[in-house]
Design a protein that fits this description.
single chain, 60s Ribosomal Protein L30, Chain: A, 2 domains, six-stranded mixed beta sheet, five-stranded antiparallel beta sheet, about 25% strand
């Protein structure tokens, strides 16, 4: 069976259950970050690695500083999804020998700019040659309080679903300039009990079903209220991907208070209720346009 026939989710379903674990693993592979027990009492350690590939995540002519920003910001967005605080980064550069030193230095300027913006220190990595397109991989480590980390699996039927910001139209350049929502996620978990959360990297059409499946529930999506970027359609908001906004589930009884306090704290960033989680037999997403799925053509 070819990978294009099964896609990313079914591939991971074949691989992840076979991975071994020990007593230090709180949450293994399959969520935005791995969660393990660390040396600091009351805190857990978060681990994340992500990569961007030339021709997939950025075009060959893309400003290399923007490439570096995106390479660092993607795993930072995954830390936001877990309400984590990143600390150290390792950068692996796998690039063809025809790339110039000027290009590499510009990529590192972008990496360092994103790292400094979130108090991350780049402490090492690796370089290697390749005959194909450039690949930049960033691994992050950091921490989160034991009572504040959020995964995808805690959603409950009748929870209200929210998204931050606006969706759709990440190309041609919004996907290179986004800001990971770490500040917002930290605020959320300080003031409210967030049941489930993830970042929207593959599009609402791919990521919302993943959150619901991880939580063992269904969902109802009100497409008419989706917050759209200017010039975007509802279909684009669902399927474009690379929005890097937060999608989260919270008890409906906290909805009004959340929206009131959010407007006061983040007046320039929309927060939109887009639906709810439902019992598994009440799922209404059979016609939901899928988002981006690796290995499968769109």
């Amino acid at each position: 069976m070819k990978l294009r026939e099964i896609g990313e989710d079914r591939l991971l379903a074949q691989l992840l259950p076979a991975l071994s674990r020990n007593n230090s693993v709180v949450l293994g592979a399959g969520d935005d970050c791995a969660v393990v027990r660390g040396p600091k009492r009351g805190h857990l350690q978060l681990l994340k690695t992500d990569c961007i590939v030339e021709g997939i995540h950025f075009a060959p002519a893309t400003d290399p500083a923007s490439v570096g920003w995106k390479a660092m910001a993607r795993p930072l967005s995954d830390f936001a999804a877990m309400s984590g605080l990143p600390q150290f980064a390792l950068v692996t550069m796998v690039v063809p020998a025809v790339k110039t030193l000027t290009w590499i230095k510009a990529v590192y300027r972008g990496l360092e700019r994103a790292a400094r913006a979130f108090d991350v220190v780049i402490v090492g990595g690796e370089t290697s040659a390749i005959r194909g397109p450039a690949v930049i991989s960033v691994s992050l480590t950091g921490s989160v309080e034991g009572d504040r980390w959020v995964g995808r699996s805690g959603g409950k039927a009748n929870d209200e679903l929210f998204v931050t910001g606006r969706l759709g139209g990440s190309l041609p350049d919004r996907h290179l300039k986004f800001t990971p929502r770490i500040e917002e996620s930290r605020w959320l978990t300080k003031h409210f009990s967030i049941h489930a959360m993830m970042d929207l990297s593959d599009g609402l059409g791919a990521d919302l079903p993943r959150l619901a499946k991880a939580s063992g529930v269904g969902f109802e999506l009100d497409e008419a209220v989706l917050p759209l970027n200017p010039g975007c359609t509802t279909k684009q908001a669902i399927s474009d991907g690379e929005d890097y906004e937060l999608l989260f589930a919270i008890s409906a009884r906290d909805s009004v208070n959340l929206q009131r306090k959010w407007r006061r704290r983040f007046p320039k960033l929309p927060l939109t209720p887009i639906g709810r989680l439902a019992s598994s037999f009440d799922t209404r997403h059979s016609k939901l346009t899928p988002g981006y799925v690796h290995f499968q053509k769109r």
